Amino acid sequence: MTVAAAQGAAAGAASLVQSVDWLAIAPPALTAVVALTVLVADLFVPERRKPLLGVLSVAGLAAALLLLIPIRAGDRSTFCLTSDADVCSYTADHFTLVIQLLVLGGALLTALLSVTELSGPKRLPAGEFWFLLLSSAAGAALLPAARDLATLVVALEVATLPAFALVGLKRGDRLSSEAALKFFLSSVAATAVMLLGVSFVYATTGTLHLTEIATRLDDVPGALETLASAGVALTLVGFAFKAAAAPFHFWVPDTYVGAPLPVAAYLSVVSKAVGFSGLILVTVIAFPSHSDVWGPVVAVLAALTMTVGNVAALRQSATRAWSAVRLLAWSSVAQAGYLLVPIAAAAYAGTDQIGSTVAYALMYAVVNLGAFAVAALVARTKPLNRLADYRGLASERPLVALAMGFFLLCLAGLPPGVVGLFAKVTVFSSAVDAGLGWLAVVMSVNVVIALYYYLQWTAVLFRAPETAEEGASEAGPTPPTAGPASRPAGPLAGRPAPAPILAAIGLTTAMGIALSGAPQLVLRFAAESLF
After folding, report:
1. Burial of 43 (0-12, 13-18, 19+ CB in 10 A)
2. Percent of the chain with pLDDT over 70
3. Whole-prediction pTM value?
4. What's the Cα-to-Cα distance from 60 to each of 97, 124, 184, 404, rounded to whole Å?
5. For the ranges 76-85, 360-369, 432-441, which has the lowest average pLDDT?
6. Which residues pair with 84 in a beta bridge?
7. What is the gyration radius of the CA atoms in the chain, in angstroms?
8. Residue pair 135/128 in contact by the 8 Å Cβ criterion
């Protein structure tokens, strides 16, 4: 071989090597490394030192959040094609960073809520819990950066598979096992349908990169047009399932009730963020030429989802024995409907509408995690978490009751929850601007329906504590008692509140108040997140 030939071969081999931007992939990569570290450390750490695993996990999530700062410019991409540097599999743009902030921040607050679950009499296995939580968070942080369908599917499964185990981690608990099984079976079915859609898209375009799919779907041969449209519709199924959009929502109530409470909080925020970021990526980036296919479908899903969620939550609140967690589950389904509205509007009025979904997701994540934090506090003494269990919270812990009332009013879209009102108005405006007047009307009706159960729960917080005689009257006639039996008992029964739960409540309250003081910052931040 001549020298020139050898140099040419070396140059060709070098051109096949992809460079890796380690800083761009640092947030999900660090989360995954900490997960593996916790798993290995669990083998050697004695039982009395297991809480150190929680400290390491919280520190790892906090460090992953800090790594978003050096890449805040949003101009990094890696794993690009050697033949075209503009076609990449991983992009850390503003949209990616906002969703990663939401995901990692939600996982961090979940970790704070989980500390008490791992130290109680029925504690969960620490090593397994922290490994599964961090693994799922790593996958969820990877997904918004994915710019090809293969990476999207892998990230979705990495975020989902550990969640199955987290839901069923209560060993010997029938409800937990049943919830995990329902979650697993429904997710597998949705993933199978999505993979079928991905295969159809690949068959018609010959590529998996989102930007190239968008280009090639513009010029699909007539014979393959039906196959392409079917692929577009089926690909949305897996992400609609993760977003808890009707009719793919049926796993939500039982899963939330059966899962450990911090896991339910995690699923309500992080799982939803994964679903919506995936939907946004495939619709706005990959399938803009087929907006006439997915636009009407997403609009109908939005109307159906918010209606099903609110009507089911209304039925839950008809009896004083309803579970607070089950109501939050149905509430999350209804909120998913609102989140779908700007995505549907993007099919008719352009990608500027997506900022409304991002803004609403940020608001929802803060206040919903705060509501779950208060629910976790009440559940320490009232495991059933019924409506009556919140009576007297204001007299026993007024600041916690005020925080819970603030969270519920934000979800309802009423002052002083200005950020919730602002988010709903923004979503409503996106529907009107896109010419979807009928969807705006459906949303208005659903917002009014939701006021009933949110305000009912808020009123309960400030009622006098339930007496033993009142509680007995609900269960049926009992022999008369006197003295201490009739004294009112608060929901916390005078027990001290764990510092991590109070920290989670304080952080979410502070963020909610700050956002309510300057709600325009949310929309401006969300608008800057667009690709």
Report:
1. exposed
2. 88
3. 0.89
4. 17, 20, 28, 29
5. 76-85
6. 81
7. 24
8. no
